Amino acid sequence: MAEKTKLWYLQNFNMLEGMSPKMMKELEQNTSMQSNSKKEIIYFPEDASNTIYFLKMGKIKIYRLSEDGKTTTLQLLGPGEIFGESAILGQDTHDNIAEVVEDAVVCAIDKRDFQDLMEKSSKLTMSVNKFIGWRLRKIQAHVEDLVFKNASQRITSFLHRYVETFGKKMVDGWMVRPFLTHQEIADLTATARQTVNQVLNELAERDVIKFSRRFLHLKGDLDQLES
Amino acid sequence: MAEKTKLWYLQNFNMLEGMSPKMMKELEQNTSMQSNSKKEIIYFPEDASNTIYFLKMGKIKIYRLSEDGKTTTLQLLGPGEIFGESAILGQDTHDNIAEVVEDAVVCAIDKRDFQDLMEKSSKLTMSVNKFIGWRLRKIQAHVEDLVFKNASQRITSFLHRYVETFGKKMVDGWMVRPFLTHQEIADLTATARQTVNQVLNELAERDVIKFSRRFLHLKGDLDQLES
DNA sequence: ATGGACATGTCAGCAATATGACAGTCCATC
DNA sequence: GATGGACTGTCATATTGCTGACATGTCCAT
């Protein structure tokens, strides 16, 4: 396969669709591309927020630590998503930790360059607004889940989203690979590792899923993972 | 007027400042003003999201209901704040309920008019971005509270924010008036009414606060309401 | 192939806080 | 100034799901 260019990568982001070739060229010149392997940290809280990132491959998690060492993961991001957006939202430092969960390819753009482009293209600005709206909606849904749902419902509906977002449809259901550790799911759902284990095994018991360290297989339709 | 903290400034930053008089004039012509009294609903979920609102006076709460009738309040907004912003973030319906908590005066602007203005003024666009970033930060902090703090810490730190945002500095501490009902605090902190009652009385016992249905008086410094 | 590190499985006990019930209080308004 | 409805205070009880402890399993580097 031909090596994929930076331009090719950039063109595949929804947020950038509809931009003129000239703009894309300009964007490309200001973009640097980097590969990051599992467990690498892209930024920490308090780090200067000068760069906005486009995730091309792999997975990134955005999370926080409490004073007493607990973890909560705010987002699990896959290809096509943007992070570090606080840079263009008027913050000069990050609030969260961004860590690579699966080896990633990331495009980095300086916030000034990006802001220049936004000034030139109201289309881009609109896309950015849309993206932020999406982000806001997702986190509001997260709050709603935390308040209204119990642990097992949160885990089940997380699995739903996870399969929907990252899984492949098969004749006999859905397959996601690789799978997450139970601790990672616990951090995403504000539950304990042991609770995740229990819920996962109950679902396997009921023959809704099959799983191992490497994969998650949903037998049948997504709506089996309701609430 | 109360001493202005950084938070106060952030909360009340005027999204429209720095706009030319001509722009302001244009904005004014597209703005309608309305008064709404306590318990009035400004919008429901699924309502068309065509309008963005500026709150001039009073308080508004943004909240959600669960299927089984529970309530969680996402935000309590005071003068200077904007709501209904989903209109300019690419959503065509609202997700939340906006209800008047204290008799309010609200300016309403059609989203198209506002978007036109944004196209003309990149300064306004930047301000909007900043505002959204601030909103995003607040809700992330909300998630962090829900996950890391226990009920009484959530209630106490809510009181901290409430006093800081809405209170007046006095010689002997801070005064907020009117106060909220215990149920309203419970909805804001994802706790039960009875728990709020208990925590409030404990704080009064420890002589940190004095309160009634009408007012909340913090005796001394804000940092007594830590975590 | 082996050892060590990390992940999973399982269980008992406990703590936090929700729930439900009911009495007491406030206050708007008739 | 009487009355009804909403709000507050207090308790006893139920329960969810966390914690800690430990055994077992899996993977990878050497």
What report would you give on this structure?
Two copies of one chain form a homodimer. With 227 residues, chain A is α+β, with helices and mostly antiparallel strands. The first copy, chain A, has helices at 6-11, 21-29, 111-120, 122-148, 151-166, 182-189, 193-205; strands at residues 31-36, 41-43, 51-65, 71-77, 82-83, 97-110, 168-170, 173-176, 209-211, 216-219. In chain A, the strands form two sheets. In chain A, strands 1, 2, 3, 4, 5 and 6 form a six-stranded antiparallel sheet that branches. Chain A has a four-stranded antiparallel sheet with strand order 7-8-10-9. In chain A, strand 7 (168-170) and strand 8 form a beta hairpin. The longest helix of chain A has 27 residues, at 122-148. The radius of gyration of chain A is 19 Å and the shape is globular. The interface between A and B is large, with 36 and 35 residues.
Summarize the structure.
Chain A has 227 residues and is α+β, with helices and mostly antiparallel strands.
SSE order and pairing:
2 copies of one chain form a homodimer.
Chain A (H helix, E strand, L loop, with lengths): L5 H6 L9 H9 L1 E6 L4 E3 L7 E15 L5 E7 L4 E2 L13 E14 H10 L1 H27 L2 H16 L1 E3 L2 E4 L5 H8 L3 H13 L3 E3 L4 E4 L8
Antiparallel strand pairs in A: 1-6, 2-6, 3-4, 3-5, 3-6, 7-8, 8-10, 9-10
The structure holds a DNA duplex (30 and 30 nucleotides).
